[in-house]
Structure formats: C-alpha cells, structure tokens
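Many introductory courses stop at the sequence. We go one step further.
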Amino acid sequence: MKRLFIGIVFLQVLSIKGSAQNDSPFIRRLEVAPLSILQYSMKLKVSNQNLRASSWLRFYDSADNELLKYKSNTISSTSFKETGIYTEAPPFTKYVTITVQKDSPPSGTIEVNDYKTELNIGSPAKKNYPMCDLDQYMRPFWNSDTIYNETVLLLARNGADASGNLLFIPTKILSVKSFDLSTTYSKKDDFILTGRTISRRVHSKMSFRTDRSFPGTDLAWYNLQSQWIVVTYTHRDKWKGPAPAYKGEMMPRTIGLLKSKSPLHIVAYGMSLTRGLDVSSYDTVPPYMPNYVDLFTRALKKIYGYDDICLSNAALPGARADWGADYAEKYINPLNPDLVIIDFGMNDFWAYKPEEYKVFIQTIINKVKAANPEAEFLLLSNMKFDPDYILGSDKNKSFYVGNLEGYSKMLQQLETKGIINLDMTSTSGFIYSRKKAKDCISNPLHPNDYMARWYAQGMAALFKQ
C-alpha cells in the first residue's frame, strides 16, 4: 500500500500558554482532499493537574467556512500522553487546521512533542489500471456456465498435499494462474483435478499454505493477499444457494433516472470493506481489480448505456454504525445523493445488538431523507467473517456471530419502497459451505477480489431487469 506520508517530529518541546480557541500558539494548516482519510498524533502534557488540554481538528471549505470539527481526548497529565484523531474529510473540504488549546481556565502551560500527520491514507500514489477483464468479472456466478479467475488457497492439512475446492464441478479447466495473472500452471506439472478439488503436485511452484502456518489462537489475524491461485473453468452444475434478483420495482426513482439516462449520484457510506480495503487495487498489487462499489457503478453504466453516473465514496475504514448515524448529515447530505449505499456492521458486532444496529441505520436514513426526501437506499448485509477467527472456546462467540446474522435480518426488515437490501450474510455462508472462507477473503474480516465480485454482481443484479 502506497501512502502520502507527512511526518513532522518536534525534537524540542513546545510550550503552549494560550487559551483562546483561535489563538493557540500551536496551529498547523494543511490542504486535504474531500473524502480523504487522514490522521495526526502528538504527545501532550500539562504543567499542573488542574489544567486540561486537548487537540482540535477543523475542516474548512475554499471560502473558509468551517464544515466539521473533531476534538481529541482530554489530557490532564504532567507526563507526556499520546493523543490524536483519525477520520475522514467531509465533502468540499479545502484545508484543515490542527490546534492545541486549554479545556479549563487554570493558568499553566501545555507542552507538545512528537507531532506527526498522515494524509491520503490508502490512496495509491498512482492509478493502476485493471489487468483483468472487468466484463468477465461481472458475469454473475450464480447463472453463468463459465467462472473466471475463482480464487483458491491451496492448503496442506496434516502434511497432506495442498488442495482446495472450486465452487462448481469443472467440465473443462481453461486456465490455472497465479493471483497476479503472470504465471500459468499446467495440469501435467502443477495440479491434479478430482471432482471440484484441485490439488498441488509436490514439485509445483504454485503458492500454498500449511495448516500450521495459521495461528491457532483466538482472534488470530493473518494476511493472504496474492497467495491464491485463480482458476477459470466451465461447468454444468447449477448454483443452489441464494441468488440476488431484481428489486427495481422498489426503487422507482433510481430506476427512473437510469432508464431516462439522467444524471445519477451514488454515495457509498460505510467502513473499510466499502472503501475497498484489501482488494487488489487498494493494496496496489496485480491485477488491480476495483472495489465493489466502483464495480457496481461501472456495471450500471454498462447495463443502462450511459456514463453520467458518479460515485462518491464516503466510507471510513474502522467506522461503526454509531459514527455513521452521528455524522450522516456532514458526509452524505452535502452531496445531494440519489442513491445511498449503507454498509456498516463488520466493526459493530463486537458491541452492538441487532436492535441497536437497526436504530443506527434507521437514523442514517432519516437524516438523509430530511435533507434529500427523494433519496433511495441500498443496504448491504455483511459477509460472514472467517469461522476460524473466533475459537469455539471464546465465551462471546455466539454473541458476535448472532449479532452479525441479526444485522442482516434487521436490514431486511427495513426494506420498503425506496430501501432495498443485498444479503451477503446468507450468500457468503453458502459459499463457505462449498469452499473454505480463506479462498474468499484476504484476512478474517475483509473480502478478496473474488468475494468483492460477489458483492458487486449482487448489487448490480438488484437493478438489472
């Protein structure tokens, strides 16, 4: 991942004596792009324990109007404590200011050290064009007789040959390649196909993992980026899992705009999955496949035959639905969206019950409709996380799993005219029953290119008659 990094470290401690909000002796101004991710950190200490201090991040537009402000945690320690803010720039941002100021009237000094700022987090230094055929990639898995570049993690269990399952039983293997598409493997030298199981030959150079290479601990993290092989094949057997279907009759305004080829503005509002974390374009690795909201937008242009469809991605990696509810007016409403994609949950299941989650999503909808009454909504139910991520011995496992599954049910309950749901929870569960989760995800909580295509294909199917 390439990032623009601006690091400023103060080797000498700065003494802050000002208390007026706009007269802080510590102030930094930086130009930032709208909807970009940024963070800063610093160490603060106060000269006496009666003094309180905090840092502030303020966003401004080109006319110097304040758009939004965030306040860091309060520091009251006489030894240095870390503080800072991580967030996203709202629409129409031109620049930010970062200040340090007193929270309380007592006299004294505030000292600042180790100030660092990072801008454009997750934005590649240059645009990488897809090396894969996106039209092929958007052919629905559930009703196509040809599957393109299905990902498989070859896994060796208990010392046996590394193998993995395909979703369908191949009638013909068209290609087996490395994930970056640079290397083609042969049946003679590299693999054996038995039914829908593909196994690695002992001396093959195909990448693989062993069961022992994964930590067997609770909440164990891993990274599988680019370690899969990809298989293109034909098949005759049919998909028996849930299949997305047209719901355009519930989205009259969006469908009306699409059919009349009128301008359509889509806003995606959610978390890291929405932003595209760990698909190949985000991680700047071949084949540079776009994230699922970009693929969805591209698909609508292809289906309806015009280009005046734009997407604003207002997702914040790490965000929860409560943040989404708190800030919907700031991040969505200024963009005057026609269609809003709401995609939260993968950071929420640790804490919020389904009923609480539903209130947050309903609040987002209500706030958007208060300013944009004609806006319509596509609610995304999360894919399931890797079942191996949380051990059975974890006393909270049923709570976490129940929450995530419950979120999908809550979103389905919200369906009505102008609001539809794509149920990736049920779909991913069925896929995991045919393939292992690690075939489909980059790490326990993020989809790889293959699973991201399921999202994009499903979203497009809801709008294709």
